[in-house]
């Protein structure tokens, strides 16, 4: 064989041995990956088992679980780097593979295959060198090749190790599967806590439940106290205490021992909150998940507006309810629109009412409206349901009453006279008519029995009645027993807009020509323009009786004499006060003096007012003349008024100074009291002269009447004699 063919033969030797060793290298790499995978999966399974054990035992927090998870990832990463990345990164030559085979089998140097592989692969490279012995190289290569060609390279890898790795992989898959099938709830909870970051607690002998918790949030009304309730379900020993940890947004935290309401029921009264708070509770062997206490605004009505239209109203009635306002009353048959505005979004409005059924129309999430025809009073409560949370508003009561268009109210009075008047009297009347929306008509009527009208014959009754003042419609039917007269006061007004009519009316009785003993009745009437029809109201009747002038004069004079008697008693009180002031040595009785003076002054004022009223009654009944009125006014009324308003007022001011640090001298007060006493004596004397004057006048009037009666009788007798002469 030539020297050229030898290298080709050696090259085939080298390829054969290299291919066999490359096959071993591939198997070695696969075995390395399989072993590394088994190591990593076993490590992961061990980490998972440890996490399950410690988490169930210690209830690890989320931060601790995250740190443990990161440490586990680091350990798994190291194993992958150590047993996968580094071995696969190494590029093994056939000689190194042979050396690894020798190391794995722990053979002696004579049995090692690495030198033989090196001879086959490396010695042919020295054939071209001059100093080398070619026969020796050829013999060594051939000898080593023959030994290596029968060597079992595939048997160098232990199949038992491979089976062990596969068995380990099978175990790492079967154990979790069996765990999931056997304990699905535990597996689910472990997955949620470690893979999803949930804080759901592990099942314990004690199970704590926060009442009202939804999706980790407990929603309460902002700015209101709320009761946090925790239920403890115990499978073993009864839980005696539960603690609550609160942490605000500002970082401040506190731990609170909850109040035990009853077995398994723990509560805590939260103060009003404005901002969210993080919280969790623990007790027994359980701990709740961390949850948020979120205060939100309770739904409430910020504006409640009523718009009512009615045929009686020219413009719609608009009213804004507020918490301080009372009820609203609307006219019957009003068309009502109720508009409501809320502070937050509202899902639904509940109406608690037996009077009305309301259908709400949503304008937007915070504006609603409804309408109805108002025929009767309605009372209902509005409850708002929040659109975002399960929280309702406090019931808002609404009461809308019915405002009836009431008939007019009348006040009908007279003044200046009493119910006994003369046939020439003038009666002042005061009329006040009030209505809710407008007075249309106000008038007065009088009713007079026919027997009270002065007549000569029965045929003259109707003409005399027609001559009464104000042209009222009078009855001419002889069968009727009374005559009615009408006195217009106000109206008729179209449209009626005045709601209050205050008028004064004077009626002269002289034109009615009534006889003493007659009775006359006055009554006032009013009408409004109610949209359902005219409403009429009549006042109480005022009844007057006609008496003779001298009879009424005597009554008035008797009342004046009674007033003079009261004034005389007052004069004695004034004198007693004057005597006490003269004999006073100290100011200890200043309060008593002041009280005595005030009583006397009040009595003088009342007598003065009553005397003025009696004079007005005389004037209205035409009793006496101007000289009579001037006489009593100048001699009695004006002095009484001056005494009450000036002299006694000055004395009151002087007595007031007795309580001050600089009192007026007792001599001055005594002198002023003497002046008051003198004035009273003078007034009493004038009143006595007035009585005497009235007696004289009455006597003169009696003489005049007697003479007039004699004259009338004489003329009547004379007429009869004349008539008898002509009859003959």
Automatic annotation (TrEMBL):
<keyword id="KW-0472">Membrane</keyword>
<feature type="transmembrane region" description="Helical">
    <location>
        <begin position="165"/>
        <end position="183"/>
    </location>
</feature>
<feature type="transmembrane region" description="Helical">
    <location>
        <begin position="66"/>
        <end position="85"/>
    </location>
</feature>
<feature type="transmembrane region" description="Helical">
    <location>
        <begin position="36"/>
        <end position="54"/>
    </location>
</feature>
<protein>
    <submittedName>
        <fullName>Uncharacterized protein</fullName>
    </submittedName>
</protein>
<keyword id="KW-0812">Transmembrane</keyword>
<keyword id="KW-0175">Coiled coil</keyword>
<keyword id="KW-1133">Transmembrane helix</keyword>
<feature type="coiled-coil region">
    <location>
        <begin position="560"/>
        <end position="587"/>
    </location>
</feature>
């Amino acid at each position: 064989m030539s020297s050229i063919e030898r290298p080709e033969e050696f090259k085939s030797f080298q390829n054969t041995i290299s291919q066999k060793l490359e096959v071993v290298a591939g198997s070695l790499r696969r075995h390395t990956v399989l072993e590394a995978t088994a190591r990593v999966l076993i490590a992961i399974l061990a980490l998972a088992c440890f996490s399950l054990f410690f988490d169930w035992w210690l209830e690890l927090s989320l931060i601790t679980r995250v740190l443990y998870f990161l440490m586990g990832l680091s350990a798994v990463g190291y194993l992958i780097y150590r047993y996968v990345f580094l071995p696969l990164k190494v590029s093994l030559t056939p000689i190194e593979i042979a050396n690894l085979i020798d190391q794995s089998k722990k053979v002696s140097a004579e049995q090692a295959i690495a030198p033989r592989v090196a001879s086959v692969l490396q010695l042919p490279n020295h054939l071209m060198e001059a100093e080398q012995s070619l026969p020796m190289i050829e013999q060594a290569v051939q000898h080593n090749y023959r030994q290596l060609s029968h060597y079992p390279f595939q048997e160098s890898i232990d199949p038992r190790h491979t089976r062990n790795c596969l068995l380990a992989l099978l175990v790492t898959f079967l154990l979790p599967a069996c765990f999931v099938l056997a304990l699905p709830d535990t597996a689910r909870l472990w997955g949620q806590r470690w893979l999803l970051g949930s804080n759901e607690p592990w099942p314990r002998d004690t199970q704590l439940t926060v009442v009202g918790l939804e999706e980790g949030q407990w929603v309460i009304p902002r700015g209101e106290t709320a009761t946090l309730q925790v239920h403890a379900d115990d499978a073993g020993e009864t839980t005696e205490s539960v603690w609550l940890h609160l942490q605000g947004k500002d970082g401040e935290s506190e731990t609170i021992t909850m109040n035990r309401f009853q077995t398994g029921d723990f509560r805590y009264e939260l103060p009003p909150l404005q901002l969210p708070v993080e919280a969790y509770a623990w007790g027994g062997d359980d701990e709740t998940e961390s949850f948020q206490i979120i205060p939100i605004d309770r739904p409430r009505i910020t504006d409640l507006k009523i718009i009512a239209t009615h045929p009686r109203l020219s413009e719609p009635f608009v009213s804004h309810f507020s918490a301080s306002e009372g009820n609203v009353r609307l006219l019957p048959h009003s068309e009502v629109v109720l508009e409501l505005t809320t502070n937050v979004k509202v899902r639904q409005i509940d109406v608690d009412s037996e009077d009305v059924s309301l259908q709400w129309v949503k304008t937007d999430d915070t504006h609603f409206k409804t309408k109805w025809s108002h025929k009767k009073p309605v009372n209902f409560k509005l409850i708002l349901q929040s659109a975002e949370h399960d929280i309702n508003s406090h019931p808002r009561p609404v009461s809308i009453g019915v405002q009836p268009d009431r008939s007019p109210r009348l006040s009908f009075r007279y003044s200046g006279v009493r119910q006994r008047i003369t046939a020439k009297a003038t009666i002042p009347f005061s009329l006040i008519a009030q209505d809710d929306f407008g007075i249309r008509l106000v008038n007065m009527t009088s009713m007079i029995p026919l027997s009270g009208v002065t007549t000569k014959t029965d045929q003259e009754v109707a003409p005399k009645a027609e001559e009464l003042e104000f042209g009222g419609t009078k009855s001419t039917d002889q069968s009727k027993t009374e005559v009615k007269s009408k006195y217009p006061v106000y109206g008729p007004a179209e449209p009626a807009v005045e709601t209050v009519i205050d008028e004064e009316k004077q009626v002269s009785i002289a034109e009615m020509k009534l006889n003493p003993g007659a009775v006359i009745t006055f009554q006032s009437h009013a009408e409004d323009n109610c949209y359902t029809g005219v409403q009429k109201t009549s006042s109480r009747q005022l009844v007057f009786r006609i008496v003779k002038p001298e009879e009424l004069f005597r009554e008035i004079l008797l009342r004046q004499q009674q007033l003079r008697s009261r004034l005389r008693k007052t004069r004695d009180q004034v004198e007693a006060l004057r005597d006490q002031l003269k004999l006073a040595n100290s100011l200890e009785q200043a309060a008593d003096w002041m009280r005595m003076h005030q009583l006397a002054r009040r009595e003088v004022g009342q007598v003065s007012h009553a005397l003025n009223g009696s004079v007005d009654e005389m004037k209205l009944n035409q009793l006496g003349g101007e000289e009579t009125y001037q006489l009593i006014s100048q001699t009695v009324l004006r002095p009484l008024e001056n005494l009450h308003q000036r002299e006694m007022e000055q004395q009151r001011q002087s007595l007031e100074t007795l309580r001050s640090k600089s009192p007026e001298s007792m001599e001055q007060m005594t002198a002023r009291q003497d002046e008051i006493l003198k004035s009273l004596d003078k007034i009493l004397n004038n009143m006595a002269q007035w009585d005497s004057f009235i007696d004289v006048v009455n006597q003169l009037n009696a003489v005049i009447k007697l003479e007039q009666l004699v004259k009338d009788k004489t003329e009547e007798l004379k007429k009869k004699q004349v008539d008898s002469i002509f009859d003959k």
